[in-house]
Amino acid sequence: MGLFERQDKVDEGVEISVGRPQEPVEEQGVFGATEEGGVNYKTVSWTRASVVLMKAQIGLGVLGIPSIFQVLGLIPGIILLLVVYAMASFSAWAIPSFVKRHPEVHSIADVGFVMGGTIGREAYGLAFMIFMLCVVASGSLGVSIALNAVSEHAICSVGFVAVAIVVVLLLASIQTLDRVSWLGWVGMVSIMSAILTLTIAVGVQSRPAAAPAAPAPWDKNFQLFGNPTWAEAGSTLGTIVFAYGATPAFFNVIAEMKRPQDFPKTAMVCQTYATIVYLAIGIPVYWYCGDYVASPALGSAGPLLKKICYGLSIPALVITAVIYAHLSAKYMFVRILRGSRHLVSNTPQHWCAWIGSVVFCCVIGFIIAEGIPVFSGLISIVGAIFGTVMCIQTQGAMWLYDHSWGAKNAERRKNRSWRYVSLTVWCYFLLIGGSIITVLGAYGSITEVINTYSGKSLTAFSCADNSA
Fold it and tell me: How far is CA 25 from CA 2, 17, 32, 83, 339, in A?
């Protein structure tokens, strides 16, 4: 089978695609068969994959959810969250279906190659790396905020980010995702302890930390419907998408599962649990704090509880950065050694490529964290500019590519069932809706960062206290 012709499996209605540069299909996945003494990457169970993805999903997104309700109002905030949940859930369904049809896919960059050849692969690969490394930066920035809060700004904030990156580098160097998965359990306990402590604290306190001090009167200004500016609304859209930012990592996780066919269970548990947590935490925190909710939300309950909540969250913030650093480094590692025996053999080339990839990802994450040291602004920029493409639009395009696009696709001409028509309309909605989110979100997020910088001491590579 040549490089310029590939025949997909024609069972289950899969069509033949001819006339575009193609790489050989890897029936055993990108890692192939493991030789004796080599590294076996395909060892992740569906339960461990669920924990890794839940931790990747909830780790940072939940900290921005209360501020979404504060800007949009409770009802629009809930509606938009559920709409994005529906979009992300479709993506979670579409990904394993696409991988089954195209077993050579290891990452979203390979999706770009299937749909757009070499240009598509490089464009998607670059977007994937930027997105993942920005999340590494967000997690490291969150760690520095937590350490500043707990220590009352004991050292320069740049030093705290550096400490976070060193720890992330060491843990992300763990070679297989199965071994990383135990960190997911630690991270889940950590973040759930922190946000439950926060929720209980704001519920029993008479007023949030940012409200006027007693006995001065205060109004939380709780709103069912907010009145945001375009910039404020756009920024929240990016934050909502970021809350489902683990979606592009689904490809990489499937590639390391013992039974890839179990992934739909993993995706269902991950997406549903994350959404329940977002609503169960976001609504009460906004109800009790109103306009005085902090971003990240862990700073909403007063100086003492702020230290406690941030202290509890430090492992979770570190592990979020670890997971994304590991997955981005694994993408680089596979790109470097794909098709070579060094990919699964314990050779010097294998280890140089792996350690070099981890170091590169952590260094870039450090630079991004220090270049945009505004937590809410950074996660909304990442969600708006890269999240919609990575989490929503590509998955719609994947389904259309397999079922509708292309002159040789007979299904478009023959299938008139309500299911097919509904899915086609839905996928085009994902493409159009994602573009709107990208434009509004990018505008709002950039505006927020500019306003945050304006007249304040917080600048790039600043030593200022970023937890204030």
Answer: 11, 13, 11, 35, 12
**C-alpha dihedral (258, 259, 260, 261), degrees to nearest 10:** 180
Give Cα 67 to chain centroid, integer Å. Answer: 18
Provide the pLDDT for residue 459: 67
Tokens, residue 202: 């704001």
Q: DSSP letter string over 200-267? A: HHHHHSSS-TTSPPTTS-------SS----HHHHHHHHHHHHHTTTTGGGHHHHHHTBS-GGGHHHHH
Helices (H), 338-456: 348-371, 375-382, 388, 394-403, 411-414, 418-453
Look over the chain and give the mean of its residue pLDDT values, rounded to a whole number.
82
pLDDT at 286 over 60: yes
Give, rounded to a whole angstrom, the gap between the first and last alpha carbons of the chain. Answer: 61
> Does the pLDDT of residue 406 top 70, yes or no?
no
3-state DSSP assignment of residue 176: coil
Distance of alpha carbon 20 from alpha carbon 92, whole angstroms = 27
* Surface-to-core class of residue 181, CB atoms within 10 Å of its CB (0-12 exposed, 13-18 middle, 19+ buried): buried
CA distance 137 to 162: 11
Burial of 12 (0-12, 13-18, 19+ CB in 10 A): exposed
232 close to 68: Cβ distance less than 8 angstroms: no
- Quick: pLDDT tens for 50-96: 988 888 888 767 777 888 888 899 999 999 999 989 988 898 889 98
What would the two tokens of residue 101 be? 């049809």
Provide the token pair at 136. 């590494």
Q: Which CATH class is domain 39-211+228-453?
A: mainly alpha
When pLDDT is averaged across residues 281-307 and rounded to a whole number, the result is 83
Q: Residue 1, exposed/middle/buried by CB under 10 A (0-12, 13-18, 19+)?
A: exposed
pTM of the entire structure? Answer: 0.83
Q: At residue 317, what is the residue type?
A: L
Contact 388, 438 (CB under 8 A): yes
Higher local confidence (pLDDT), 150 or 15: 150
Distance of CA 109 to the CA centre of its chain: 16
**Structural Rg of the chain based on CA atoms:** 22
CA separation for the pair 279, 294 (Å, rounded) = 17
Where does residue 26 rank: exposed (0-12), middle (13-18), buried (19+ CB within 10 A)? Answer: middle
User: What's the pLDDT at 353?
Assistant: 93
Place of tokens 């979770």: 316
Helices (H) and strands (E) in the chain, counts: 16, 2
